[in-house]
Amino acid sequence: MIPSLIFHSDSELLEGPVFNSENNLLYFVSILDCLVYCYNPVNKEILSMKLDSPVSCIYFKKHKVVLVSSKDGFFEIDFNSLQKKFAFQIDINDNVRYNDGIQDPIGRIIIGTMGYPEVIENVGNVYSYHEGQFKTIIKNTTISNGLAFSHDNKFLYFIDTPTKKVAKYAYDLETGDIEFIAYVIEFTGSSSPDGMCIDKDGMLWIAEWGGGCVSKWNPLNGEKINDIKLPCSNITSCCFDNDANLYITTAKNDSKHEVYGGGLFYVKSNEL
What sequence ranges are listed for the domain SMP-30/Gluconolactonase/LRE-like region (predicted)? Predict the structure, then answer.
């Protein structure tokens, strides 16, 4: 399991990789550079668009057109024309920015917030937005991160990074309401859980900030199955493509000797 570096541009904080299976395109962001990327794995083309405030999460609309969260609100970005336009904003406090998010099967946008420019304990929330209306579904979070639905969409897994745990919620697809069930995974070492995704078998793959790896967990019993080591310490998130290959985003750390932080990595499915 040797990850391949496929993109590196001296970014401080790459995040939010999502793969559009219909169009075979990977999207990801450089949060603090306010950049949104579109990567074509077939011809290796990488396009980028810059917004005016930190970006975090990408939602699919149509071919090469996405909705992106930024501190200034949600913007529609068209990578066909390289144009952008404001879409909407949720009523959030000035001292927070958006972080990780996900979309449910009927199109609800779920997204969390965190303190910005400084992390503030319990200042964040997780919101659900649909058809012009929004509501708070998880309150008093600190660093809202990984979100993943079970394959039957009955459960939502969520990471508030400082808790070092993965929470499991019952999810009502009809109403968008959630109810806390239990913490199903706990990190006891020095690393902290960041972004995550779920594989075809229902296992959670969790990026470990400070741990230099992506780890695979069984949410049914809380057991760690294995991990993938990377040549940098701060791993931010991951996602699978159509062929179960894994894309991984990373961030820099304070060491001058670590050169690969902030890169985008790729691991083939036959090596997982």
Answer: 15-251
Question: CA–CA separation, 63 vs 160, rounded Å?
Answer: 32
pTM: 0.96
Give the residue, 266 or 270, on which the prediction is more confident. Answer: 266
Q: What is the CATH number of the domain that holds 212?
A: 2.120.10.30
- Residues composing the chain: 272
Residues 6+ apart with CB under 8 A from 131: none
User: 99 near 57, Cβ under 8 Å?
Assistant: yes
What is the DSSP code (8-state) at residue 259? -
Q: Say what the alpha-carbon torsion angle 141, 58, 244, 161 is, to the nearest 10 degrees.
A: -20
Going across the sheet that includes 96-103, the strands are 96-103, 109-115, 124-130, 133-141
Domain hosting 249: range is 4-271
Number of domains in the chain: 1
**Residues 33-79 pLDDT 10s:** 999 999 999 999 999 999 999 999 999 999 999 999 999 999 999 99
The answer to whether 24 and 42 have CB atoms below 8 angstroms apart is yes
d(CA 189, CA 191): 6
Identify any residues that bridge with 102 across adjacent strands, giving them in sequence order.
Answer: 110
pLDDT, tens only, 16-30: 999 999 999 999 999
* DSSP summary character for residue 3: P
Cα 160 to the chain's mean position, in Å?
Answer: 12
